[in-house]
Design goal:
seven-stranded parallel beta sheet, 11 helices, alpha/beta, five-stranded parallel beta sheet, about 20% strand
Length: about 300
Amino acid sequence: MRKKIAFVGASGYGNSGDDTYPLVFAQELPEHELVIYNSDLPAALPDDLDLLVLGGGGILYNNPKEGAADAESPHFRAMRFYMDAAMRRGIPWGILSCGFQFQINREAEYATALKPWVPYLQQAAFITLRSPNCVRIAQEISGRDDVRFFPDAAYLYRPAMEEDDTAAHAVTLVPAGLVNVRNTLINHYVRQFAASGTPVQWLGMGAPVDDDKLLAEAAVRSPKSQIIAHAGPRLAFETIARSRFVITGRYHGMIFARIHRVPFITPVDSPYKIRMENLETDMSAAAGHFEVLRQFLRR
């Protein structure tokens, strides 16, 4: 039976990875009507909604400003708007292909930071998360034993690609965090690639507000590099597929490299979600998110 499902995730800011999720949902759930909402821009849910899903992406976090009078961040309040609306109207809701977000080396504070999430995690109809560590944390703070781990749903993204007979030759750098042209080690790598005649390209997979400055600096400091700005999911996917090697500070840069089995590295001090990725799990297991969802819909 056709259902109307609302997905609340981090898409809509121009981040190639987060904008991949609605494409995967449409790819995996063609039999249902899908509506997409941004996790930080609350909007009224349709009157005829059958199911609310939080996901995908790293939207399970609560980072209130230091010294704030309450322990709830604007992001959590936006998420609570959707969950409260669903419960008030008797709409079932769950969490799919999400992850917890922590600043580097602050995981020890998770119990305090995530406290406002606890009653909601306890009431969700289903929870599938994208790392074993996220599952452990969810179980510890909620007391649930039915939280499931599957690789991120973006591993299922498979856009049609035009054939390209040219061999992969360029090294692709996906800027974010320590992957930037000002970083001493990254700049050293770029100089070495140039010395060997290896083409270098900077692929912007983040939102413009995050990437524009980094890409402008790369254009100035590494003038022989190609700059690919505002790539979008498909172009990012294809660019990484045709790369010789990838250095990425972005989570989905790593995912796309893994899909195509392109060698990659990430900085040691990568964001939490990169450091917690289980690189030994079969990527096809990401289909488990949708198996859980379909099982719930069949009830």
